[in-house]
Amino acid sequence: MNKTSTRVWQSLLAVFCALVALWLVAPSLVVIPLSLSDKPSFAFPPTGWSTRWYSNFFDDPSWLDALTASLKVGLLVVVVATVSGTAAAVALTRSAFRGRQALRAVLLAPMIVPVIVVAIGLYALFLKAQLLGTTFGFVVAHSVLALPFVVIPVTASLQGFDRRLENAAAICGANRWATFRQVTLPLVAPGVLSGALFAFVTSFDEVVMSLFIQSPYLQTLPVKMYASVTRDTDPTIAAAATLILALTTVATLAATLYIARRNRVR
Amino acid sequence: MAVVEALTQATSPGVPAGRRAAPSERWGRLALLAPSIVLLLGVFLVPLGIMLWRAFTDPHPGLDNLTWYVGDRVQRQVLFRTFTTAFKVTVVCLLLGYPYAYAMVAAGPKLRAALTLLVLVPFWTSLMVRSFAWVILLQDRGPVQHLLTALGLGHPQLIRTNLGVIIGMSQILLPFLVMPLYAVMSTIDRRLILASSSLGAHPLTSFVRVWLPLSLPGVGAGSLMVFISSLGFYVTPALLGSPRDSLISQQLYTQVNVLLQWGRGGAMGAVLLVVTFAILAVLMLSIRQSARRHTKASEATSIEATSIEATSIEGAAR
Amino acid sequence: MSVDVSTPGSPSAQGALSAHGASITLKGLTKRYGTATAVDAIDLEARPGEFLTLLGPSGSGKTTTLNMIAGFVDVTSGELLIDDRPVHSLPPHKRNIGMVFQHYALFPHMSVSENVAYPLRQRKVPKAERQALVTEALRTVGLAHLGHRRPQQLSGGQQQRVALARAMVYSPRVLLMDEPLGALDKKLRDSLQLEIKRIHGELGTTFVYVTHDQDEALVLSDRIAVFNDGRIEQVGTAEDLYERPSTLFVAQFLGESSLFHGVATEGADGAGVRALDRTLRAGRGHARAGEPAALVVRPERIRVHPIDGAAADQAGVDQSAPAGNAVRGRVRQEIYLGNSRKLAVEVADGTQVLVRESAGDLSGSRPGDEVWLTFRPEDAAVLPATPSHDNTPTRTAN
């Protein structure tokens, strides 16, 4: 192949990738104009503009409650999943024991098993245990889904951690706790942090399990949105979606920039 | 204190693995694993157990629910439709994702960062938001329909059709294919291509003979992720599909939440579970084998079975 | 939980970093992993202020021994004393030992100064004093100007100097070094060797140094313990080991040696070995009469006497034999080394005997020549061919 045809191929690839990029990002953006529509319908494109759906979102207690519930559950899931997932990752990487591979597989299984299958069983269990619509129920349910997303990055950073540094700290006079706090933890912190971030997003986005374990008294934001789409054509959901979209974009950008700068410093 | 010990124990270099652990170490390990084990048992394994138990006991002990499922024509159709939908979604994702992942590897650092970000933003964006966006786009008299009409393609129904479901799902699941594929491709030594070309091979030949086989583990891992996710997808099909064209997850929801047929729901869940793991096992084995073959040939990539999902997430973390 | 400080010997900034070296005593120290024995009942003592090197091939147990002293590896049995105090039940952080690791093991998230200050922080040394000590330690290793850098920004040699500063900043009475120069290139290794030797002289700390590099051991050490297969073959000064090896392993591991294999004999005039149809005499012997043994001579102690080819053919083989230890052979190979040359001489049983001639004293023989090899009995030793650790006295006088 000569140079010209190579260039043709390259241009074709570039155009194709631009289209794929558009396909990845553009569809979600329609929620933005819709959220600014002045009519109580999903008609698109909107014919007039207003910010009434944003006011509606912040005035309607059911939307605000859903948002609060989602944030509360999400933050609690961060604590529960990050702590237990980090501890499990430490045990899995630090010691060889029988059944380690099996345990690792079970820890990652919530990522593979279709959520709806677990959700049915959980529904039955929570029905009996009267945990439907409780914060506790939401937190444990989401935590188990978030667990693999913590175990994976923490395991990766523990594997990249040079164990000899712990010996060095010990011989410098640091006891085990000081060694863990001053040497191990700071060096695996990026893994733990990204695990925590994954955990929050997993919980904040979760719909299927939440649909089963919700109650009219406790709904998370995605559940409220789901109900809203299926029941009525109220663009308040578009306002909510826009807010979430803005939040995720900023968070992803910040995280990417943070990681990029870290890599450059290193 | 046992926890701290386990956190820091076995720091000795050169200690052979698998030696007998000291009791304190064993207790420390148990303490570290306890929260996860409790979570997994209580909120994952026990619920799965309940679901399976119901499949064989509700309303009567026996295989009634399974016989019903196997014998029911509608359910067979649903299962078949679920598979074909998942297959179509996977193919669409592959067609779009493979060149994209290749471009990510071939691009310079700045462009690569931009391309990565463009995959990560949708990956992180709420599933609910993205499904909702597709509801707006594909609705009757919506923008896509308008566009198609303007292009002279008539007035096709998109929402509440299987086509709509496939469109939405393949957009939503595309990052799950691109990230593992990129992770694998980035480990391929690009000099192999150059070497092959310098030996006189046509670029297309080198691509087909060298690059394609080496990227196969990534194709396998990514397709597996997309296919398995598609099988159990609920929200998007529920919002974009119709009850007439329902997939297994929608049927499951209906059986349990609407018809209160716990046993039948359990049977369907069991089928979905078994099918998922069967596919996982088969693909995992073949990926492992091909990885081994290619590792021998070129030290390229080897994907540990359990790290297939890991690659996608680590890709996201990167 | 508080940090345990076990008498760090209250370092003071003015008094620089010198310390009284501690003695280290190992008695029957043993480490077993399952059925495998990594270290087999070794006895060893490092004297206060001494530079003791543990030398041996990889897998010989030297690193495991060091790790037992440091506390990273549990002792299976035996005693481990520092200044006559048993320490084997103390965790590493309570042993008050300094250590330099092969791959530096600097904390990447701390600056050079913070790395060096780390042991002082654990010992709750007040800040002002801490800074003075860090500056002093960095000055000692010649890196006073790089305290603010991150370890990753330094070269390998600089990183190892930082590690050295970190190990000595709190004036530990014992300093362990695990192949500290193993990751560096030859030139850097040589200059750092001299520096380590200088620092040892300045500090007065007891150094225990692990290496597999015999040259390094010879340059640095007051005494060397040669490890093989989990046991100590011999302990002594460099000269002891080189001139008076007590086992075949030591003779071969340290420097070059020429061997004549045979059966040990015990004559009125000392030890000997029956080899090549004659009895070769040696000044020293550790082998029992009748057992397989080898006579060991350093190559530079062997003299080469060319044989006049024609005369030898006429007069029969041994007519021209010089008196004393003499072996006939044929030069097979010559290696020119500048200040010396090496000859490989094949003797009757087919073994190649190595001879080194210094440039000022060449015999003039060439490959193919028939020669006589001679050596003085006092330059030779008869050592058992199969090591038997139980009944052979393996230690020369301390």
Relevant CATH superfamily of the largest domain in chain C: P-loop containing nucleotide triphosphate hydrolases
What gross morphology of chain C would you assign? elongated
What string, H for helix and E for strand, traces the elements of chain B in order?
A: HHHHHHHHHHHHHH
SS content category of chain B: mainly alpha
From N to C, what is the helix and strand string of chain C? EEEHEEEHHHEHEHEEHHEEEEEEHEEEEE
CATH architecture level-2 label of the largest domain in chain C: 3-Layer(aba) Sandwich
The strands making up the biggest β-sheet of chain C line up spatially as 6-7-8-3-9-10
**Mean pLDDT of chain B, nearest integer?**
81
How many strand units of chain C? Answer: 21
Short description:
Chain A has helices spanning 3-29, 31-35, 52-59, 61-94, 100-108, 115-129, 135-160, 164-171, 176-205, 208-213, 221-231, 236-265. Chain A has 266 residues and is mainly α.
Can you describe what's shown?
- The complex is a heterotrimer of chains A (266), B (318) and C (398).
- With 266 residues, chain A is mostly helical.
- The radius of gyration of chain A is 23 Å and the shape is globular.
- The model of chain A has no long low-confidence stretch (mean pLDDT 89).
- Helices cover 79% and strands 0% of the residues of chain A.
- Chain B has a single domain (62-317), classed as MetI-like (MetI-like fold).
- Chain B is 77% helix and 0% strand.
- Chain B is globular.
- The two termini of chain B are 35 Å apart.
- In chain B, 46% of the residues are buried.
- Chain C has two domains: 24-240, Rossmann fold (3-Layer(aba) Sandwich); 263-384, OB fold (Dihydrolipoamide Acetyltransferase, E2P).
- Chain C is built from nine helices and 21 strands.
- Chain C has helices spanning 62-70, 112-122, 127-140, 156-168, 186-203, 214-220, 238-243, 248-253, 309-315; strands at residues 24-33, 36-46, 51-55, 77-82, 85-86, 98-100, 174-178, 206-211, 223-228, 231-236, 258-267, 270-275, 278-282, 284-285, 292-297, 303-306, 325-336, 340-347, 352-358, 370-375, 380-384.
- In chain C, a hairpin with a 2-residue loop joins strand 4 and strand 5 (85-86).
- The model of chain C is unreliable at 1-15 and 388-398 (pLDDT under 50).
- Chains A and C meet through helix 8 and helix 9 of A and helix 2 of C.
- Chain B: It is a multi-pass membrane protein.
